[in-house]
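Please supply some protein, with fold tokens.
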Amino acid sequence: MATFSEMKKRLKNYLNPYIHPSIKEGLYRLNLKSTRDISFAFTIMELIAILSYFTVFRELLSEPAILPSAIYATVVSLITFAISHHGIKNSKLPFSTYRHISVIYYILIIVFGIITSFYHYRHGNQMFVFFAIIFCLVNFFLLPPITSIILIWGSYIVFYLILYAYDGARTINIFNYALFSVLTLIGSLNKYRMQATELERIHRIETMNDMLQNVPVHDNVTDMKNRYALRDDFDSYQNHHIIVVMLDLEEFSKVNEEYGLETGNAILNQVGGYIKTHLTDSHSYRYGSDSFLIILQDMELSDALQRLSIWERSMATLSIPEIGKPIHYTSGYSHGTPRDEDELRMLIEAADRKRRDYSS
């Protein structure tokens, strides 16, 4: 069972979770975009409402709060739209500069919702506007936990106090009202955490991709590609018939230990030269410290075997320079038409298994 200090720590982490600065910037961008979209929608709706007051519902113009509140909502939404649109399209400032605009718009537009719904309440109608606005804002905005608690519960409490001051909130079921406020808050908290988690996942993927992009794909010793280049070359092998050859130099580590790294590198360079001369220059890779991967593409098996035979005769002359001690190797091959990276990996593993089988 969790101790009080552990529960306190979990609550603190839930209410104020650590979010990487780059992820916060992504949340600010999403919020700014949502603020632009919802303020534009409100502007259009309120302009239509104002037009309807002058054409269809003229009797409402005599009500003191109707037209002014609609104009207020239109002006607030139009200004918010202009600022947020500028922040997304034209501004060179970071999105964090505009991080308060969604909160300010929330407060200003919820005032409109409270005024409009209070008017409906006084006339015995449904208080649809307040709930519609608050649910809409919560679904559009990504509010940090503490901000959500203050804004959402603050809105519900203020509106309830206004109704209570008017007639004791006689027609309000306090249980349902409180339940709505709790559900609204839970929805806001979950939306924020889910979006933050998704952005964190994307951030990790982008970081890994950047790391992979910076990994060298060329082997200086053999002047061949290395295994990391295989990722970039996969598209050229997909849906093409290929023959995969795996080559491994036996006990090569002993060569480095006994004769030095310079001698070992000279042998590796010689192996790379044989591969590029007799098999392929563009589809050969130094796959490990003493292993090589060769891929022959769109080639008949008989032609490939002929090339491999010539290459093997060259490899038979491989020896330690100045000493003439032969270097032994094992090889194996497989062939197929890979449709995805997994199938290419399976062909490589099959060739490596055959190599090991031949050596045993």
Remarks:
- Residues 174-213 form the longest helix (40 residues).
- The CA atoms of residues 247 and 331 lie 4 Å apart.
- The chain has two domains: 16-212, 218-359.
- The beta strands are 218-219, 224-226, 242-249, 284-286, 291-297, 329-336.
